[in-house]
Amino acid sequence: MGSALLISLATIISSSLAQYNLVDHRQGSNFFDGFDFFTGGDPTHGFVNYVNQGTAQGNGLISTSGSQVYMGVDYTSVLAADGSQGGRQSVRLTSKASYTEGLFILDAQHMPGGVCGTWPAWWTVGPNWPNQGEIDIIEGVNSQTTNLISLHTSDQCSTTGAGGTASVVTGDCYQYDPNQSNSGCGVSDKGANVYGTPFNQNGGGVYAMEWTGASIKVWFFPRNAIPGDITAGAPNPGSWGTPRANHANSCNIPGHFAQHNVVFDTTFCGDWGGSVFGSDPVCGSRAGGNCQAYVAGSPGDFKEAYWSINYMSVYQTPGEGNGGLGSYNEPLEPPTAGPLEQPVPAADPAEASRVVNAAMGGSTLTGGPPKVEPMKIDQLPAIANTTTA
C-alpha cells in the first residue's frame, strides 16, 4: 500500500514538474552521424544481411534529402532461397549515445511495416540484455496493421496495461517467463493508422515514448493531430491525454531499465515474422507459405519496405542521465515534405526536480556492450493474425 502510494505520488509530482530539454536531435544530413551501423548476424535469425554505412550508401539503401531521411532495403536482387547467397540487404542502426530515462520522439512519414516478409522496429535496449531492459515502441510483422508495444526485462517486472488504450497481450515482462514464449509484456494497439500500410497512406505521424522512474508510456499522433507543443520543441506529455501504452504497475523501472541505445532495423522473416508468415491471411499463400523463399524471390515487393523520417529527438529533464551529449541548442528544421508548419526552436534549459528515483528507491546499473540475444516472440497469434485496425 505504501509502495503503491509512493509510486502514484511520484508519478503526479514528476508529471507536474518535468520540463524537458532537448539533448539530441537527428534530422537530414546529421541523422546518420548519431548512429553506428550494425553488421553482425541477426539476433532474431532473420533472412537479412545488415550492411555497413558505405555499402548502404553505395547501394541506395540510405540517403537524405533536405531534412528527410530514407532507410530502405535491397529491392532489386533475386537471391537463392536456400540462403547460400546470404539474406536480403538492409540496415540496422544503433545510436552512439545511450540514455537513462527521457522522452523519445520520432516523426516518420513512412515505415516498412505492412509488407509480407518484413519485421521492422524502432526500439531501445540496454547492455547486458535483458537485465537492463528493452522497450519496443514500433514493431510488427508481415501484413499486420496493429502495433506491438512491449517490454523485455529480467525477473520481477510486470504490467497490467491499466491507464493505456491498447489491449494487453501478455503481462509478465520477464523475457524468460516459461508461460509466454519469451514475449515479454506487450500491448496491441489496434487504433487507426498506427502501423503499416494505413500509417503510410495517412502520411505517418509522431510516436513519443516517455520513460521515467515510475512508468514507460507510448503515444501515437497521426499527421493531422500532432500536438502543438511537440512541433514547438517544448513537449508536454502531461497535456497529451491517455497514452496508447502505459507500462507501470508491478515493476521497479530504475531497477530494470538503464543505459539504452536507440535502434532502427528492418529484418525479414526471423523468429517471429517467419513463424507466422504461413498463417498470415495476406502473405500465407505466397511462395507456398515459405517466408524465406518469398523474400529471396520477390525483390520488387520490398520497394515499399523503407523508413522515411522527418526527425528523431530525445529530451530529458535535468535530473535524468544522458549519453554525455550535454545540451543540444541547434534549432530543429521543418521537414521538406511540410508536416511541420514552422521551425521548431530548441527548448530553453529549465530547472526541474526529479523525485521518481527517490520514491522508487532508484538504482544505477552498469554494464558493458549490449549482449546480443535472440528476441523470440514467435508465438503471438493474437498479434500476428490481426490484420485490421
* Rg (CA only): 20 Å
Question: Given the helix and strand composition, which structural class is it?
Answer: alpha+beta
Low-confidence stretches: 1-16, 323-389
Question: How many separate helices?
Answer: 9
- The total count of strands amounts to 18
Q: Kindly report how far apart the N and C termini lie.
A: 38 Å
Biggest beta-sheet profile: 8 strands, antiparallel
- The sequence of SSEs as H and E is HEEEHEEEEEEEEEEHEEHEHEHHEHH
The helix fraction, in percent, is 10-25%
What share of residues are in beta strands?
Answer: 25-35%
Structure in words:
This protein is α+β, with helices and mostly antiparallel strands and 389 residues long. 15% of the residues lie in helices and 26% in strands. The protein has helices spanning 2-17, 53-58, 196-201, 228-231, 253-256, 270-274, 291-297, 356-360, 381-384; strands at 21-26, 35-37, 48-50, 62-65, 68-71, 88-90, 92-95, 102-110, 118-125, 134-139, 147-152, 167-170, 185-189, 205-211, 216-222, 245-247, 261-268, 307-316. Strands 1, 4, 5, 8, 14, 15, 16 and 18 form an eight-stranded antiparallel sheet that branches. It has an eight-stranded antiparallel sheet with strand order 2-7-17-9-10-11-13-12. The protein has a two-stranded parallel sheet with strand order 3-6. A hairpin with a 2-residue loop joins strand 4 (62-65) and strand 5. It is globular and about 50 Å long. The model is unreliable at 1-16 and 323-389 (pLDDT under 50).
Topology:
Layout: H1 2-17, E1 21-26, E2 35-37, E3 48-50, H2 53-58, E4 62-65, E5 68-71, E6 88-90, E7 92-95, E8 102-110, E9 118-125, E10 134-139, E11 147-152, E12 167-170, E13 185-189, H3 196-201, E14 205-211, E15 216-222, H4 228-231, E16 245-247, H5 253-256, E17 261-268, H6 270-274, H7 291-297, E18 307-316, H8 356-360, H9 381-384
Parallel strand pairs: 3-6
Antiparallel strand pairs: 1-18, 2-7, 4-5, 5-18, 7-17, 8-14, 8-18, 9-10, 9-17, 10-11, 11-13, 12-13, 14-15, 15-16
